[in-house]
Amino acid sequence: MTWRLLTGPGAVPPAGRGRVLAAVHGLADHGGTWQELARRLGPGYRCWVVDAPWCGAVEGPATPWAATSAGPAEWLRTALAELPEPADVLVGHSFGANAVLDHLAGAARPAARAAVLIAPLVRPAGRAPRPVLVARTRAAIRQVVADGLRVRLGRRAEAVADDVLAVMVGKALQRVPDGAAEVVLDRLLATPRPELARVVTPTLVLAGLGDQRLAGARADSLAVMPAARVRVHPHYGHFCHVTQAAEVAAECAEFFDRVVPAAAPAGPTMEVYA
Q1: CB neighbour class for 16 (10 Å; exposed up to 12, middle 13-18, buried from 19)
Q2: pLDDT tens digits for 84-110?
Q3: What CA–CA distance (Å, rounded) separates 130 from 246?
Q4: With the C-alpha atoms ordered 103, 105, 107, 111, is the resulting torsion angle positive or negative?
């Protein structure tokens, strides 16, 4: 795996300066999804991104990742061990947020001082029958892929006919690694769970009230985490880190200022909340 440092004019401080973020994307997405948020955060941050095994391959056969992987949290721990510098903050979107969440819940000493979860996958508080929840989640995955395409197309999406978009969504779903959808279902059914009450890492959860497919108000279930702050905004969508990047960046910056003081020029110091 290869971590990439997002760069831009004056946006990334030199090595050893600023807060270090390690960002993990959602299903069928890629590391470039963090570009706008990194730009909005501006000077003082170093944002490392990686293409996770559940990314949407541009070409070539889909990878049977889920059948051979030990799981998203285990993958993330291995990936963090290969990060060029220690991460102050872990940031995850959608399924990537669940990988971060599982890492925090399962690691004795998480390698980060704080975390941001954007539109995580959370099971509703009232347990729906498994067949119903599975069917709804499969439909939600397709809708999220469609929304992701619209976000990447931007204004061009207005000129794309519905039937053409449906074909594009079908092709995008074919690029999802074999078995990844089953892993998504597994992680969705696993939350909320008792282990979350032991996660003491300061965590900011951001979700949209209108994003009822996988997150939305259901993010309140994560309030069982003793150091979590859950914010649900009426106008945030599932890809708010892209479509509302300025607002998300402002919320993250305020959160970082409180829980992750800026590093000294000599380099970031690691502190584990326990």
Answers
A1: middle
A2: 999 999 999 988 998 998 899 886 666
A3: 38
A4: positive
